[in-house]
Structures are given as C-alpha cells and as structure tokens.
Structure to design on (263 residues):
C-alpha cells in the first residue's frame, strides 16, 4: 500500500469523524456532561470543536478527489504540444470505473479507455508515480513503430506535416521539431518529432486487460515503447481540461490555455 495523499485524507476523515462522532455518542450515553452554553453557543472541548469543523470539509474533498475529479500538474514535456510544462489539468476519476481510495479496487464499472484518450495512470515500474500519456493500443491490438511511423493492426497512422514547432520557457528545448497532425482513428491531435534523434523500433500485441500508451512528444517520452503496457488496474482517469498554466520561465499565466478541453 502506497501512503499517498489519498491515504492521509482517509486517515484524516476517520480521525476527525471518530472524534466528533465518538464525543456525540458518549454524550448521549451520559459519559460526558452536556457542554455549557456561553454567549448563546455550546462550548465543546477544543479538540471536538476542531474535529466537527474539519470533518465535513475533509470528507467532501476526499469524495470529490477519489470519485469525481482530481487535479494534476504537468511536470515534463512528454505530452507536448498538447500539454505544456506547468499546465494544471483536471482528470475524470469515474470515466473508467469507480475505485475505492487507497485500496484502488474497482467497485463499479463505468467505461473503458478509447483509442486517443489522454490518461493518467500509475507507472507500472513504480506505482507511486503518476504518468500521463495517450492511449494508442487497446487490448488485442498489434502496435508497431518503425522509422518513426506508427502502425495499428498493420495500418499506418496518417500524420500531416504542419511545420516546425517553436517553444517558449521550459519548452524551448524542443524548438525546431517537426509539428504534425496525427489522425488516430478519428482523434486528431498534434505530435512532435525530432528528425535528428534516432528512432526506437518495436512490434507487440497488447495483452488482454492492458493498454499501449505513447506521449505526443514522440522522441522525448518514456512510454510503452520502452517499458511495456499499462494494466487496467493502474488507470487513474481521463484528462479532460486545462484549468491553469504557470511556468516560472514565462511571464505569468498563459491565459489562452485556461479552460481548454483535451482531446
């Protein structure tokens, strides 16, 4: 069990709820005397007062973050140009099923990843780390990557050259890369490639219950081409919105990115 933020939120919920609920039960059982009324308000013990105040707030945050929406910050350029360093995104936590916090067991099936989805998942080599990539291959698909050409089930994926990319701030390192529009089974999105960088070659069939993922920044992404597929149980959710962008190497907030939906 990884002791992440969700774990501590669950602990905080149980502790504050236990203190407040336990005090109420003991009060009703006559173990404690009713708290005196001062200035028209019931004067509870300080610890109980804090627990009563924080419990509903912590519970609401836990429910929202565990079952509905969770915020993430993009720390690297592996999903450029779709996602930039410093983007803050929202991830739909119920898109691929409702899971219990901490235990991560699926308790209710909702949907499955589709080709082209941008997904957040726990890195198979180190589940304490969250990764974000695009779904390329579904269970049973044959994925090939040869001379920087992507093939799905033997069919080449079309990519139209748009020009050269110009980065700013922390993205400056990728300036000059080829900017292409890829059509992944009807999902159109931009990708980057560096002509001078050697290409990895691979060919594999996606196992049942697994997904093949790649970054949109094809020559600067640690993805399924190198370490394999993502098990279904490692999925966290589907990224759907940029709600903030802040890069210290740029002048302030990139307001033009706020509210952009992801596809």
């Amino acid at each position: 069990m990884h002791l992440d933020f969700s774990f501590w939120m669950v602990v905080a919920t149980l502790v504050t709820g236990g203190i407040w609920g336990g005090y109420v039960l003991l009060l009703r059982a006559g173990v404690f005397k009713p708290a005196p009324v001062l200035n028209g308000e019931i004067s509870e013990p300080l610890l109980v007062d804090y627990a009563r105040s924080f419990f509903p707030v912590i519970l609401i945050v836990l429910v929202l973050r565990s079952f509905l929406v969770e915020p993430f910050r993009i720390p690297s350029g592996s999903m450029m140009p779709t996602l930039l360093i410093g983007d803050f995104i929202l991830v739909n936590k119920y898109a691929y099923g409702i899971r219990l916090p901490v235990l991560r067991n699926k308790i209710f099936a909702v949907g499955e990843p589709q080709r082209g989805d941008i997904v957040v998942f726990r890195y198979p080599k180190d589940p304490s780390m969250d990764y974000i990539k695009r779904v390329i291959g579904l269970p049973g698909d044959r994925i090939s990557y040869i001379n920087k050409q992507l093939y799905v089930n033997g069919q080449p994926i079309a990519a139209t050259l748009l020009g050269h990319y110009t980065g700013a701030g922390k993205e400056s390192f990728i300036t000059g890369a080829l900017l292409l529009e890829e059509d992944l089974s009807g999902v159109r999105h931009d990708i980057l490639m560096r002509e001078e960088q050697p290409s990895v070659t691979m060919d594999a069939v996606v196992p049942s219950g697994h997904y093949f993922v790649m970054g949109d920044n094809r020559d600067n992404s640690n993805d399924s081409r190198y370490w394999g597929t993502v098990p279904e149980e490692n999925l966290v959710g589907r990224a759907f919105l940029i709600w903030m962008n802040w890069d210290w190497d740029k002048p302030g907030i990139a307001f033009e990115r706020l509210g952009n939906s992801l596809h």
User: Anything to note?
Assistant: Residues 74-257 form a domain with the Umud Fragment, subunit A fold (CATH 2.10.109.10). The chain has two domains: 5-68, 74-257.
